[in-house]
Amino acid sequence: MTLTGTQAVGAHLSRIEAREKVTGTARYAFEHAPGRDIAYAAPVQAAVARGEVVSVDTGATLTLPGVIAVIWYGNAPRLGPSDDGELALFQSNWVAYRGQIVAAVVAETIETAREAAGQVRIEYRQERHDVVLRADDPTMYKPPKVAPNYPTDTERGDPDTALREAAVSVDLTYTTPAQHNNPMEPHSTVAVWEDGGLTLYDSNQGSSAVRDVLARLFELPPDRVRVIAPHVGGGFGSKLAPHPPVVLAAIAAKVTGRAVKVATTRQQMFSLVGYRTPIIQRVRLGAGRDGGLTAIIHDAFEQTSTVKEFAEQTTTPTRVMYASPNRRTTHRLTALDVPTPTFMRAPGECPGMFALESAMDELAIACGMDPIELRVRNEPALHPETGLPFSSRGLVACLREGAARFGWADRDPTPGVRRDGRRLVGTGVASSTYPVIRRPSQATARVEADGRFTVGVAAADIGTGARTVLTQIAADALRVSPDHVRVEVGDSRLPTAPIAGGSMGTASWGTAVVRACEALLAEMDRSGVRPLEVRVDTADEIASQSRLSRHAFGAQFAEVGVDMDTGEVRVSRMLGVFAVGRVINPKTARSQFIGGMTMGIGMALMEESVMDVEFGDYLNHDFAQYHIAACADVPDIEAHWIDEEDPEINPMGSKGIGEIGIVGTAAAVANAVHHATGIRVRDLPIRLDRLVR
After folding, report:
1. Is the whole model's pTM more than 0.90, yes or no?
2. What is the secondary structure of 208-240 as a DSSP string?
3. Domain 154-179+275-436+548-690 has CATH 3.20.20.70
4. Which among 65, 123, 344, 520 would be 20 to 30 A from 397, CA to CA?
5. pLDDT digit string (tens) for 205-217?
6. pLDDT tens-digit readout, 654-689
7. Helices (H), 383-453
8. Which one of 362, 401, 607, 659 is the catalytic residue?
9. Is 541 one of the catalytic residues?
10. Domain 38-48+50-128+182-272, CATH 3.30.365.10 — does that match?
C-alpha cells in the first residue's frame, strides 16, 4: 500500500475553524434559527423507576400563557418500528426507568416550556424496581455479543487447571462505578418539517447515522431526512447514536408545525443520553516463578436496561495484551430498571484495562518482579487468541521509552517508604491499547474553476480537529498546500460516512478522501475539464484488506502524592508514550492524548455516579457533585509517541488516537497509590475513605 506524501501530513497545522470558534461565529446545534417561527420543547420525566402512567392531567398546563401543546402517549403520533426501545417515545404508558420522558410541553419560550413542564400532573402505578448491579444476580445471562460486534466469551487451552497448578497466582475483583459522559455542549436539536421532509440541526457524532435512524422511526426515505452538525462541542460516545431528546424535537415539530428546539439540561443528561455501565470484574492470573503467564481468566459483570440491550466489551483488551497458552474471557449481563448504558470514551478498553493492568501490577509484586519487565516477558509474537500477525506492535518500545523519560530505573519498589513532607509518594505504570478500526466511507473531491479544491465527507468534527487533519490529508493527496483545499463535513447530504467514534474517524474518512483525490487527479489528467467532481466508496477496499491484527499501544506512567492525614491523592506528574503509526498533526494529537489522560485521572480519583437505591436515580447529576479533573488536577502531564511505520492500516499509515489516551491511566494512578501507601484500592474512584484507615 502506497503512503501519501509528507508536505502537509505531520505538520503542526493550527485548527482550520479556530477563528470561528474563538470569535463565537461557529454555530452549534441550538444556535440555528431556521425562520422566525421557533418554539421550544421541555420534557416531563418519570418520577418512578418502574411502572405505568395511569393518567396525564394537562389542564392547568394548557392554560398557561405561551404554551402551545402538551404531548404524551395518549396524543403523540405513532412511530415506525425500532430495535432501540428508548427511542419509542410516547408509544406506550410503560415506565422503564426513572427520568424517562413521559410527556413534553411545547411553548413559545424555553423558560415557559420548562416552567409548564413542572405543572403537568402525572399519576403512576408503581412497581418494585431493581437498580443495583450484583455479580451473583440470578438474572445474569450471556448476551449474544458484546459491543460493537465481538464474541461474548473466548477460551483457549485449560485455564482452570493451569491456574490451579501455577507457581504464582492472583484472584482479584475490581469495580468501576457508573460514569456519565458529560461533553461540554449538552445534547441539543432543532427540528423542522418542510415539504414532507425532516431537517435536524443536531449535536451528534455522525450525521449519516442519525439520518438513517430518524428516517426509519418516521418512515421516511433517507433522502427526506437531513441532519446538519457543522460544529459539535464534544461527545465522548454519548452522541454516537440518537437518544430520546432528538426524537422529542422531531415529534414536537411534527405536532405543532413549528421549528422546535430541544436542549437538555446538565441534570437531564444523567438519565437521557447514556453512561458507562458500572462493572464488576474478576481477574485471575497464573504464572511461573519467572513471571511467564500460564493462565489468564477475566470475567466481567455489567448492567443494561429493560428496553435495549447494550453489553460493553470489557474483557476484549485482555484478548490481545499478553501471551499465555491458557486463557478465558467472559461477559455477563443483567437487565435492570435503569437507563440504557452506551459507549463512553474507549468503551471496553478503558474499564477492562484498569482491572487487567492493576492485576498485572499485583502479579509483579507476587513474583518479586519489576512490573515493566513482567509485561515485556509476556509480550506475544502473534495475537494471543487468533494467531494473526500484528500489522505493528509497539508496546515494548513504549514501555522502554516511557521508563527512560520517567526515570523508572531509579524506582525503589518497596511501597510506603518515600515521603515529601506530609505526603507519601509513589509511582505506577500501566499499558494502553486500542484496536485500529476502519469502516467503509464515501467522499467527493472537486476541482473548482479557479484551481482550488473542495472535498466533501459526512464526517463529524466533535472538537478533535477532523477538518484540519482531513485538509492535510487531502492536500498531500492532491499535491497542493492546505490553503488550496476546503473540506466540508457535518451534513448528511454529503457522502455517507461512519461515526466519529472508536478512533475510526480519520482512518475511515481519510481513506475515502485520499482515494477521491487520487481519482480526481487521474480524471483531471485524462479530461482536463474544470470544474470537475468525482465520488468514491471504499467498501471494496475495506472488505479486501489483509487479515492482520491491527492495534495501537502505549504506556502510562504516574507519580502521586497522598496526604498522610487526609488521604487526599494528587497526581504530581503523568507521562504517556504511544505507538500510533504516523501522526498526522502533532498539535491536535498531543491535545487528544493529554485530554484522554486527564479524563483517565478523573476516572481514577473523582468520577462516580451514585445510585439512589430507593428512588432508582443518580443522586449527583450536575458538576457541583459529579466531579471531573480540571487543570489544577494535572500540574505536569506529557504525551509523546514513538516513530512507527505501518503501511497495512490505511493510506496515511495512521492509527486513531481519540481513545487510547484514557486507556491504562486509571490503573497507572491506582498502582502509584499502592506504591505510595501500601494500600491497594480495587474499587474506583480512589476516595479518601478508601485510604484513611
Report:
1. yes
2. HHHHHHHHHHTT--GGGEEEE-S-----TTTTS
3. no
4. 344
5. 999 999 999 999 9
6. 999 999 999 999 999 999 999 999 999 999 999 999
7. 395-406
8. 659
9. no
10. yes
